[in-house]
Write a structure and sequence with these properties.
Strand content of chain A: 15-25%
Number of strands of chain A: 15
Order of helices and strands of chain A: HHHEEEEEHHEHHEEHEEEHEHEEHHHEHH
Radius of gyration of chain A: 24 Å
Oligomer: homodimer
CATH superfamily of the largest domain in chain A: Zn peptidases
Number of helices of chain A: 15
Shape of chain A: elongated
Largest interface: A-B, 28 and 28 residues
Chain lengths: 452, 452
């Protein structure tokens, strides 16, 4: 008993001392970022000087230059660009008008990303409204053919985690156009995948199935959808759509990468990142300027605190998350070709809101190991380590066996802004953004220090 | 062993069944509010149709009528007004100009609440800047006398809980004017108690010590404070202040009270509330329109779900929290006089942001009892039950021995808006506000059901 008593005393002392040191580092990281962090200033520059930046656009090129310069200024040992072939989608002019008999009324809309347009011609047809897929499936080809299907599915506001709601309502954006086309519809209007109590339309990508004829698909805001719903209930409604959107080939763009080489295990890479591209409206502030500037802040904080990571810290600003994920694939392909060893990848792509935890998508053993440090995060408001989601850009790495994680910010406001003209710098709070960077830096520090 | 085995099986079964039922009620409450709650609509009416509502103002009178009507419409069994004598403070016109030699420059400012003015006359004096009380204490009476003291104390942004920062920096608003007057200063300018990266001045109350001569005190926004700091470092700076603010006697106003009488223990009162008054700028949206509409939502949700509380559920919209707390005192006095038995009081007065938990200010035994239900709140994002703060309006009840609690919303944004013209309806997110009402209703339901 004496031996075990001494051993457990020794272990307890040793562990407490280690946790005490970790806790002190956590505090330094937080103080540094909350007092001197530059991520909010960086975000202002990205949003206001460059603005939205769809893959293949001039602004996306500028964002690449901006990211490269930011990483250099943050103090990266090496900064480089990794070529990525991205699809180019062009919106052009677009309009949607509704009529229930008399005059036509123009309503606010956005074509979904990657969708075909009407080649600038007027497409006019009767509207058939369905509230969900069940209703849609009951309709025959005759009832759909030659019509514009209005998928009037509401975001399930009762779900506390809005990402669950997005998964649910998002199906109408992802699959609605394919299902409608298969029954001969000429176009699709969806109620935006939006928690907003407003008239803001939300764009976002769709992917046409190979087997169907691509038809134009557009989103309208909740207020317009309420109004269209009321009109459809009263009687026949016609819509006319005019849009110029189209795919315009591919272009070479870049992932922007910077790193601090590890002092003890330089071959072990700990990745942190977000995506540099955004939709072609708003300023891509929450989605995902926030994740980019937070990831750069991680590296800057290591430098500011003179922490040389034991393992290599690599920041990746991915290109083309929104409408192709080509950056994520190119990165994983390159890592495989170079036989790089990624021991961990963390993405921030759920908005610059107050952090609440991390999704940990990895083996139970690794999750259990990281959760041992949970109490260290509690004073910074991060408590939720139960979810298991990383991020889209790092999903190809995950499939290659890399343990991945995703920052989990408070999710209540994200789908008010997501993929809209309202996703601007002003929608991001400086302290919430910085606190996210604090949590990310703390987690990344743990893994560079102790491995995973 | 057999007996104990059976007993523990029985207990486990019984407890799980009870928790299962509680969990189902929690879900019903959440679904009801997230899908059909009216607190956000109520807040719009309060903010946009009435606006700010300082005690004694016409708008405060209108807010009392609004609160009474809301509680009736929500389905209260009884609604009544409880008279409260409130101090009346009038701002009038005010201006602050700064000069470092040449021209005068007007800067954005707000007199602190309850402060004296210059009776509309021009008060001009040299400015002496101090960064904190330590610097101030080093200055002699000669160095302060006849001057305007600029307390240039920064909000400690490194504190993750901004209420800790408020407690720290707030001392300059509460005590700065008294300390400056005691050394012969003629006025005080403070850097606003603000987390904002903007030029928004924050008002808020001060209380003159009986022993000193009251002097005017004003707040300026962070950007103006940065600029004044730079000027003071460069050389002599003069300020001129003109203000008409003054105390203007007292007036009778009201706490607004509504209740659902308990079915089994009507004499046991479970209170939930917020405060109806606000400062005389902005719309008092987060402070504390949010707490009022959330408290009304609690009662409305009981009615909507046809839950007759076992104990009496009482909603109180307090008057005069901001510059006197007379409503809180009047309520506690009345409760004592009537020998009412309050078993619990919950206040929401920290903003309509995503809820993170409850401060539990009560005996360890009661805190431990409530924390047994902690896991039920987790799916709704409430996890923090470690703090011990109720709310100002219910602090007189607390002193009378009532167990009190305070909703703890995410605190990152609150002090960007607190006591400012920026605290408007648009600064409140509909889902965050509703989720706060969800947590409050769940906690109140637990206590009406099981006691405390």
């Amino acid at each position: 008993m004496k031996f075990f008593g001494s051993l457990s005393f020794f272990l307890a002392f040793f562990c407490n001392a280690a946790f005490g040191q970790d806790s002190a580092i956590f505090r330094q990281i937080s103080d540094q970022i909350m007092l001197h962090g530059k991520c909010y200033d960086d975000l202002r520059v990205l949003c206001k000087n460059i603005g939205h930046r769809l893959s293949g656009s001039t602004q996306a090129e500028k964002a690449v230059e901006w990211g490269e310069q930011c990483l250099r200024e943050a103090g990266a040992d090496k900064v480089w660009l990794q070529p990525v072939d991205v699809p180019v989608w062009v919106r052009g002019r677009e309009s949607l008008e509704i009529s229930s008999g008399q005059s036509w009324k123009k309503i606010s809309m956005l074509s979904l990303g990657n969708t075909v347009g009407t080649a600038g011609k007027l497409l006019e047809a009767p509207v058939v409204m369905v509230n969900d897929f069940t209703e849609f499936k009951k309709l025959s080809v005759e009832e759909i053919k030659g019509r514009i299907v209005f998928f009037n599915y509401r975001f399930p506001q009762q779900l506390v985690n809005t990402f669950d709601g997005y998964g649910d309502a998002g199906a109408y954006r992802w699959n609605g156009p394919n299902m409608a086309s298969a029954k001969g519809a000429v176009a699709v209007i969806i109620r935006s995948v939006s928690t907003g109590v407003d008239d803001v339309p939300h764009t976002g990508t769709l992917r046409y199935a190979d087997t169907i004829k691509p038809i134009p698909a557009v989103a309208i805001g909740n207020i317009s959808a309420d109004s269209l719903e009321a009109q459809c209930k009263r009687g026949e409604v016609r819509a006319r759509l005019q849009s110029e959107c189209r795919m315009a080939g591919t272009k070479t763009s870049f992932n922007v990468i910077g790193e601090l080489t590890g002092s003890e295990h330089p071959e072990q890479i700990v990745l942190v990142g977000g995506h540099l591209d955004s939709w072609d409206v708003g300023e891509g502030a929450h989605d995902d300027g926030a994740g980019c500037v937070q990831s750069i802040e991680v590296l800057r904080t290591f430098k500011a605190l003179k922490i040389r990571p034991k393992r290599t810290l690599r920041v990746v600003l991915f290109m083309n998350e929104e409408n192709g994920l080509k950056g994520g694939f190119a990165y994983a392909d390159s890592a495989r070709a170079k036989k790089e060893k990624h021991i961990f990848a963390l993405e921030s792509d759920a908005g610059g809101f107050s952090p609440r935890g991390f999704g940990l998508d990895m083996s139970d053993a690794r999750r259990g190991y990281l959760k041992r440090y949970k109490h260290l995060f509690f004073p910074y408001g991060l408590y939720d380590f139960e979810q298991q989601h990383g991020g889209a850009d790092i999903s190809p790495l995950k499939r290659a066996g890399v343990p991945v994680a995703g920052l989990l910010p408070d999710a209540q406001r994200y789908f008010d802004y997501h993929h809209t003209a309202a996703d601007v710098f002003e929608a991001v709070n400086h302290r919430e953004l910085k606190l996210g960077a604090v949590g990310m830096t703390q987690l990344v520090w743990l893994v560079t220090q102790y491995g995973l």
